[in-house]
Amino acid sequence: MNRFGNHRLTGLGQSEIRAMITACTRVKGINLAQGVCDTEVPEPVIRGAKEAMDKGINSYTRCDGLANLRQALAYKLARENHIKADPETDITVSNGATGAFQCACMALLNPGDEVILFEPYYGYHISTLLAMEAVPRLVPLRGQNWELRMDDLVQALTDQTRAIVINTPGNPSGKVFTKQGLESIAALAQQQDWLVFTDEMYEYFLYDQQEHVSIASLVGMADRTITISGYSKTFSITGWRIGHSVAPAPYAELIGAVNDLLYVCAPAPLQYGVAVAFKN
Hints:
Strand order of the largest sheet: 1-7-6-5-4-2-3
Order of helices and strands: HHHEHEHEHEHEEEHH
Distance between the termini: 56 Å
Structural class: alpha/beta
CATH topology of the largest domain: Aspartate Aminotransferase, domain 2
Shape: globular
Number of domains: 2
CATH architecture of the largest domain: 3-Layer(aba) Sandwich
Strand content: 5-15%
Largest sheet: 7 strands, mixed
Oligomer: single chain
Number of helices: 9
């Protein structure tokens, strides 16, 4: 038996998404497992990245990202998400939303912390929590509309519950939490003094007149919420790995330190390309 290997990875393996891609490729099937966009990358995004390379923006950035991207994100967050974020202290650009989630969990959770996760869940969320030696506490979403019953949520609580993960619009369910639903979660989070991690990668993918609401925009939630998103889907740049987190400055400082440790920074010219896209 090999005597090496991190015990944190016991029971973890290749993600279901990756396993399905491998199986699909083997039989030359149609890949429905991974969120690969079938639209072209918008021309301004490509032009922006090329412009950055031509200008020599090819070296390290600050660990929290290029200033012009952080400023563009702050403007977008205020205009569209009603979140006030200081681009100098509150925003961390990372290697995709998955990387941003990992950095946030490593920075803010301890082994043994219990974290509420709604089921069905995004596989990378639960794998990240397990790798951190956090303890996922699963709460089912029920029925055709994936409704949350607050009784289910309350029953999952213990003295070790420290945080909750919200994914809206949800992957893989497509569940979009309403403002009323988020207000109920927010009230409980404030009562129990939880951190809230919210993955909003699919915020622009809305149908049937549904509205995206960021829980950090609700009263009393900005100081305890880590908002995570990215532009892999929006701009069809899944391979660029540009995501970000938004958090209160003391939390963002810790997240930035972990981001520096794991990734140093996201690719500089690709950050620049996303910043240019916001202006167009």
